[in-house]
Amino acid sequence: MVISTFKHLYILINGAKLEALLPNSTTVKKVVEDDFMKPMHKFEFVDLGDLFEIVNNHVPPLYPDYATDIIGVVENFEKLSPIPTKYGQRNIVKFRICNGRNSPKVTVWAQQGYKTPEDIGSVSTVSNSVQVVETLTLKELTEKTSTDYIKRNVMCFVTIKRVEAGDSWWYYGCNFCHEEVHLLEGRYKCVNPKCLKSSPYAEKRYKIMVLAHYKTKAVNVVLSDRVVKRLVGKTATMLLEEIEDLAETPPSTLFPQQILDITNKDVTFNILISDDNVLINSTMYNATDAYLSKNSKSSTSETVEEILESTESDFGEIS
After folding, report:
1. Cα(128)–Cα(122) distance, rounded to whole angstroms?
2. Contacts (Cβ under 8 Å, ≥6 apart) of 48
3. Of 122 and 69, which is predicted with more confidence?
4. pTM tops 0.85
């Protein structure tokens, strides 16, 4: 077996640098032990918004292309069509893949194009962009009383006026459903009745509440771990480690300055509307994602404006 630098056309985005080459002289022996710890399949899903950063940091001479997994809605689908190339005629399929904020172009080439399911061809081509995630003002959000909006995601621009006081800014989360866990007999037990799984370890996750304001309206928004990580730029575990390294270690229940610094930032929240928001007019909302405006930009967050600009840039076509 020969170990060498990865030379193939596509590599995984996790930065694999080595590959194992098996020449004809290689002897392969079956391992009889249980291999349940070895994954049969591997997926590395990437947020569509993060693709732009990956491509911008991409070094073409060294690694021509990356391969990764994404999820989105297919839009502007064009049926299989031939085009002339220097290698002769090739078949391609073009479409956009959208998640409500980003809509990069995708081109599927050659044999991949031939394998496109025929029923995809029945998808109607949309001449104009389709708004998958509705954008609402804070006033419009609080006025939604139709049950059609339950469990629906909407985008909402706000200013964070303050971080609300609470018992703690982090918690131990279930590795399966991310709900809170309790330590029982040396294992972390999930409190979610639909999960109830236990694990020997648990991940530290953010959970805070902020007062969000826009013009004459103000509501409370609970920020999930993903949202706070975007705004703060680091995980809860990393922030806890930094706090512990301080000369004067504050209690973990006190809100660190990095979290308090999100006050007065202009943010677009992805809000998941709950039953209570619609049925009893609760003004406590849950944010599942966040995007900073340009005047509130941090080094680790994309702005909504940049996402829209990137969608229309030359880079947007991914082959």
Report:
1. 18
2. 70, 72, 97, 98, 99, 101, 102, 104
3. 69
4. no
